[in-house]
Amino acid sequence: MFVSRTIQTILISLFLGIVYLQIPESACILGHIDNDIKGVRNRISAMFFILMNESYTALYSDIAMLSKDLPVVFVESGDGESFLIISLKGMYRLDAYFAAITTVAFPLSILFPTIFCLIAYYLIGFQFAFSRFLGFLGSILLVTNCAAALGQLIAAATGNFSLASSLTTVVTLPIILLGGFYLQGLRVFWFLKWIRYVSFFYWGYKLLILNQFHGVHFECTPNLPCPYPDDKAVLEAFNVNEYDISIAVPLLIGMNIVLRILAMMCFELRGYAAFFKINT
C-alpha cells in the first residue's frame, strides 16, 4: 500500500503540475503577479484541487485502514473492567489499538502531502518564497489531518468498509459544496450556513488564498481594465479576510482533536456492543 500510494502521489502531482505548468496568465516572480482574472482563478482552482485530492486520499486511506480489522471481537479482561481486542495478530487493549493505528498513520499523513506539494507547488508556479511554501504545506496538512480524523470517525461508526465509503459521499458532499469554491456570491439558506463553518474545506480554502495573495503586489496592464488593483481586492472578491487565519488555524486543530475523540468513543461503543452481544 505504501509503494502504490507513493507512486499515485508522484504521478498525480506531476500531472497537475504539467496541466498548470507555471500558469502563464499569472506567472509569479519575486512576489509580483500579473493582474489577470484568468490567472487568479487558475491559481485558486489549482489550490482547491490539491486540497480536495489530498483530503480524499487521506480520508479513504484511514477508512480502509480502520475498517479492514472490523468487525472485531471484544472480551472481558481479568480485572473485570477493561476490554481486550482480539485481532489476527494477537491481543490488544482497545485504547492501545486505536492509539497505535493513529500513531502509525500520522507520519504518513505528513509524508504524502509533503511529497505532493514539493512536486506540484513549484511546477505550478505558486509564490516562490520558501516561507510561502511552508505556509501552503501547513494549511494542506491541517486540512488533510481533519479529513483523516473524519475517516476514522466514519469507519468506527459504521464498522464496514462498503457502508463507510457510501456514507463518506453523503458527509463530504455538503462540506465541499459549501466550502467556498463552488458557491461564490450566491445566497445560502440560513439552515445550511452552519455546514460552511464546520467545513474544514472552507477554512483550508481561506488559508490557501491568504497564503498566496495576501501582501502580494499586482502589476496592472496599461490601458486595460484592472480587476484586482491590490491584494485586498482579491481577498474581498473571494470573501476572505486577513484575520481569518486567527480563526482557521485553531479551529482546524480543534476539529482534528474532536473528530479523533469522537472516533475513539464510537470505537469504545462498538466494543461494549460486541461484549454484550457475546454475553447475552
Structure description:
The chain has 280 residues and is mainly α. Helix 2 packs parallel to helix 4, helix 3 packs antiparallel against helix 4 and helix 4 runs antiparallel to helix 7. It is 66% helix and 8% strand. The strands form 2 sheets. It has a 3-stranded mixed sheet, with no helix packed on it. It is elongated.
Main sheet: strand order: 1-2-6
> How is the main sheet built?
3 strands, mixed
Strand-residue proportion = 5-15%
Count up the helices.
Answer: 9
Looking at the structure, what is the overall shape?
A: elongated
Outline:
With 280 residues, the protein is mainly alpha-helical.
Keywords:
9 helices, mainly alpha, elongated
Write the layout of secondary structure elements.
Layout: H1 2-19, E1 28-29, E2 32-34, H2 37-67, E3 73-76, E4 83-87, E5 90-93, H3 94-124, H4 130-158, H5 161-177, H6 193-197, H7 200-213, E6 217-219, H8 231-237, H9 245-278
Parallel strand pairs: 2-6
Antiparallel strand pairs: 1-2, 3-4, 4-5
Helix pairs in contact: 1-3, 2-3, 2-4, 2-5, 2-7, 3-4, 4-5, 4-7, 4-9, 7-9
